[in-house]
Amino acid sequence: PLAAGLLEEVIALGCRKFIACGGAGVLDRHIAVGHILVPVAAVRGEGTSYHYLPPGREVSASPAGVAAIEKVLQKHGYDYLLVKTWTTDGAYRETPAKVQLRKAEGCLTVEMEAAAFFAVAQFRGVLFAQMLYGGDDVSGNEWDSRHWHSRASIREKLFWLAAEACLSL
């Protein structure tokens, strides 16, 4: 909810185009730490998005935003995956059963903001897309941190790529 609130505030200040960046847990151990992931849709496993859009299983990123991200990533020669992500507000509740269900729905990542961001953007009529990087691995029976919080260079790289994509819009 806090991220959605911040987005609401900057929209109220007049901003209309957003490219966010951040980390995500992976539901497939073959996705390397730091691999760039671009969510095109989010499974709504949190509560905030339901305050903005009618009930539904998924919410989509802005296609123009995704296209801008892809263009920048291709320009710089970065490998990336277009993904469906699972947004949850239940920290540390990625149980093996839930992970299997989300994988069956096509999700490759889990995070805590995308569905709310996408819903706020659609409700407010602004452009929003996001880049994530592969972080911890929640695909097995035990959590593997893969030391994802110590990857400052990856986060900095994503920030500058997101800025470039946003400025291209």
The total number of structural domains is 1
First-to-last CA distance: 26 Å
Which fold name corresponds to the CATH topology?
Answer: Rossmann fold
CATH class designation: Alpha Beta
Q: Choose one word for the global shape.
A: globular
Can you summarize the main beta sheet?
A: 5 strands, mixed, barrel
Secondary structure class reads: alpha/beta
Structure description:
Helix 1 (2-12) packs parallel to helix 4 and helix 2 crosses helix 5 (152-167). It is globular and about 45 Å long. The chain has a five-stranded mixed barrel, surrounded by four helices. The chain has one domain: Rossmann fold (3-Layer(aba) Sandwich), CATH 3.40.50.1580. The protein contains five helices and six strands, in the order H-E-E-E-H-E-H-E-H-E-H. Helix 3 links the parallel strand 4 and strand 5. The mean pLDDT is 96. It is 36% helix and 28% strand.
